[in-house]
Amino acid sequence: MTAPVLAVHGLTRRFGGVTAVDDLDLAVQPGEVLGVIGPNGAGKSTLVGLVCGALSPSAGTISLAGDDITRLDAAHRARLGIGRTHQIPRPFARMTVLENLMLAASAAGAPGGRHRSRDRRADCLRILHRTGLSDVADQAAGRLTLLRRKRLELARAMALKPRLLMLDEIGAGLVESETRELVDLIRQLRQECESMLLIEHVMEVITACCDRTAVLDFGRLIAIGSTKDVLADPAVAAVYLGTAAVDHAGAAPAAEAGRIVEAHQDAGSGLGMAAVDISDRTVRSLVDVGGERDGGPLLTVEDLTVDYGGLRALRGVQLTVGHGETVTLLGANGAGKTTFAHALAGALPLAAGRIRFDGRDITGLRPDRVTALGLAQCLEGRRIFGSLTVEENLVLGAGTAAAPARRERLDAVYSIFPILAQLRRHSGVAMSGGQQQMLAIGRALMSAPRLLVLDEISLGLAPIAVDRLYQALSAIQASGVAMVLVEQNIARGLSLAQRAYVLSRGEVALAGTPDEVSRNPALAALYVGEAADR
Amino acid sequence: MTAPDLLTRAPDVPGPRRLPPLTRELGLLAALAVALFLVPYVAGEYVLQIGYLVLQLAALGTAWNLLAGYTGMVSLGSAAFVGIGVYTVAELDNHSSLPLPLAFLLAGAAAAVFALLVSPAMFRLRGLYFTIGTLALAEALRLWMVNSSLFGGASGIFLRSRAPKSYALYWMVLGAAVLATAVTLVVLRLPLALRLNAIRDDEDVAKQMGVFTFRTKLIAFSLSAFLMGVVGGIQALNLGVVEPYGSFGLSWTVDIVMVAIIGGLATRTGPWIGAAFAVVLEEALKGYAELHLAITGIVVLLVIRFAPRGVRGTLTARVRPRASLTGDRGR
Lengths: 534, 331
Hints:
The complex is a heterodimer. Chain A has 22 helices and 20 strands. Chain A is of the alpha/beta class. Residues 248-282, 289-293 and 529-534 of chain A have low confidence and may be disordered. Chain B has helices at 3-8, 22-37, 39-42, 45-71, 78-95, 100-122, 128-147, 166-187, 191-201, 203-208, 213-239, 244-247, 250-263, 270-284, 289-306, 310-319, and strands spanning 157-158, 241-242. The longest helix of chain B has 27 residues, at 45-71. Residues 1-16 and 320-331 of chain B have low confidence and may be disordered. Chain B is globular and about 55 Å long.
């Protein structure tokens, strides 16, 4: 029997008092694609770091094709054929995209002689073509948008021609057609790499690509087996999948599905999240009374137009949000959703248009003034202050509010996110992704906004964490705060909305109630069409 | 940088660059070298002395640029390498009769060996810590040179041979500047350049992409030290008497940084432009020592604030407008 491509034994890594990976035994067989799933903070990325040599283990061994590589440094491991991508892309920002690949390729001198430089270049250009980056080959990598940086991560790892390719959440933030492209690409790559290890929250990618799947929780392996069996396991549903289990365990009988949901609720309340039991009164104290002066809408956006360099990112966008209303903004990647959120906050200069908030013209106002008026933002990427505790992060969000008001808002936020109350003395970044996202939303709520703009809050979160976030959002909704929800996931986005807008190429292509929007046949075309010509 | 940063401000990265063929650039350099070589036949003593200072700083700035600009290792230890070069030539002059070019090479080699010896300690430090570490190293070496009696102590050493004529010194330092520039031009076209840049942009990831980072950094560090040592060696002849305060003085380090920043980090001609600028400014303000320092400080501040890519980098940006974020969509 041939040795597994990758085998780890008793692998342990502690960070201070936290054990991120705990006595882990895992093997990736030749020709296999192994999926690794688990809640945020389960130790998945740490595992990748340990295997590629970026982190050194506290205990345990790692071997590649039977050879112990525990003591080798990252460069040697890369040359032996371990390639990885980073969850948060880390391109060589001041080198061109092609140079990023050429660097990796120059280390890919497989035994049996080095490639000649011209062959290497041709190879790299081929990889760029396959990953859809040909048009930016000569651009500085630091100028790529987030999603293209993720592609670059993949392309660069491919240029290394690894035996074991480890992909860390490269599916996050993709729309359906892009996900399909990614699945196709991974399937092709199977022919080229000996084995792959795939960390992913996008279940379509896991089900379509992985032969076996391992589930981590708190650094421990809680399940491993064929992907189908693992995803149908109620224990996995409880810690990770949440309601998403119902979609993927299609074979499970209804009774079992019911059990899964129950199990998930149990697990949720254990973490102090699922049971969002808040009296309306507590939460309502977040909303400053005194709005609703005129009968008009809370927010009116007229003819909003924004340019980036030579490109028109938004073109004459019209949008209104009523008092206490939840409006969802959908659209493919690059449609202009995040630009819209930034423009609302005053973080971008407008080429044309007006923004009225609560009867006042806020066009061109500085971001801090906009926030002070009651329009709060929760930006893509969370941006937690790592050197501050959870509570300090929250207090910072209250701005100049007086101490009693601050206390009240803090209580309200803790009532929506009880887990934050438990973690109040922890550092803001020593939390899982889902908890960080809650903190980011909580911080935005601390300014007692009447309108909360939430940009892609579910990006990169475990399905169960997304469930919990949306439960909290409905609590916020019930408290009377109006929301603009920028979402990729159509079903999630529409679940809370009273009205929805779909952006396409910087323009409003569809608008209406969630029903009208989701039934409109144009919706799919808007998502797919735009993604197809990127 | 996170995604919103990308959206809210233009990322500060240079646009695409394509290097012209090596032969053309070396040709241009050779033409420049010939033109500068002829200067002593037409110019007077004063011009030659100014020329010496400009070329000396150009050579040192170019050597430092290799390290700080292309590899991202901002060293403040330049004075150590210059000083070692100075003392090597001084000692060789007094104790041997080696031909000068060989003495200069040995001066460079001594500096490079020193770089090699301290690299295990220095490379444990990253970023600002490396910067501070190299500064401490250079200061420690200076203090040792002052207090040890091994190389003449605080009073220094007289050189046995008489100082060469100023045109000869000018030619020597011209040679050093051309050598440093030629080395840079060649290195930029080797696969090594990619590795240096990768280390500059993200050392950990470079490692994960198979770059032997220690080895690669050592190449840049010792190459830069070698070139600085050569310039130091020439300076020994210029001085005639060498003492530790000046030879290992912090002003070398500061001048080099200033020249590179004003001219433009990670540009090939930047150090030359910065050197010319610095020396001309100093000459123009001769007699107002305090004013000179203040104005130089203001200039550096203004450059960092308004033209962080230096004179050269800013010129490039003006001439060739940056492509927009998605400017070549659909090409």
